[in-house]
Amino acid sequence: MLVQNFWCRYLCPYGALMGLASLLSPLKIRRDTERCVDCGKCARACPAGLPVDRLQQVRSAECVACMSCVAACPVESGLQFALAPRATHDATSRWRRRVMGPAATAAAIVALLVGIVVVGLVGRRGPARGLGGLGERLRGRELAAELEALGVAF
Questions:
Q1: Which residues contact 109 (CB under 8 A, 6 or more apart)?
Q2: Which of 62, 73, 61 is nearest to 30 (CA)?
Q3: For residues 41-53, average pLDDT
Q4: Confidence band for 151, pLDDT divided at 50, 70 and 90
């Protein structure tokens, strides 16, 4: 293989969509240069092969925020998935209240996707039509006929 993940990096339309979302997102993987010990574990853990250990902020279409680099970092808050830091001199207060850990990020993404699916299913027509007429079928005679055909007495 000449290029690692060639399909995902250059040809996959889903990868292109993820890359565009990554570039437009206000949340980025950011390295606190004051806390970083320059061990390089983050760069070795990155599946996209990005030089995370040399960047202050990862701004690449190849970064899909998988959080592998954040998990590999041995220093607490050395790498963070966060908004831009505040302009203060104290490193602790600079990142406070702006940090989303990997679990919180995953939970937020899942909640967003579930919300999109629910809104898409319900739509403007209400839940009965949004679910392919299931509600109407359950209320109508069609269900009774199906139950009788199955031998269910009610």
A1: none
A2: 73
A3: 90
A4: confident
Contact status, residue 102 vs residue 81, Cβ threshold 8 Å: yes
- What does the radius of gyration of the chain's CA atoms come to, in whole angstroms? 24
Task: Find all residues with CB under 8 Å of 4, minimum gap 6, and list them.
Answer: 49
Virtual CA dihedral for 3, 8, 13, 17, nearest 10 degrees? -110
- Is the pTM of the predicted complex or chain greater than 0.70? no
DSSP 90: -
Residues 6+ apart with CB under 8 A from 129: 123, 135, 136
pLDDT band (50, 70, 90) for residue 20: confident
| Cα(25)–Cα(92) distance, integer angstroms | 24
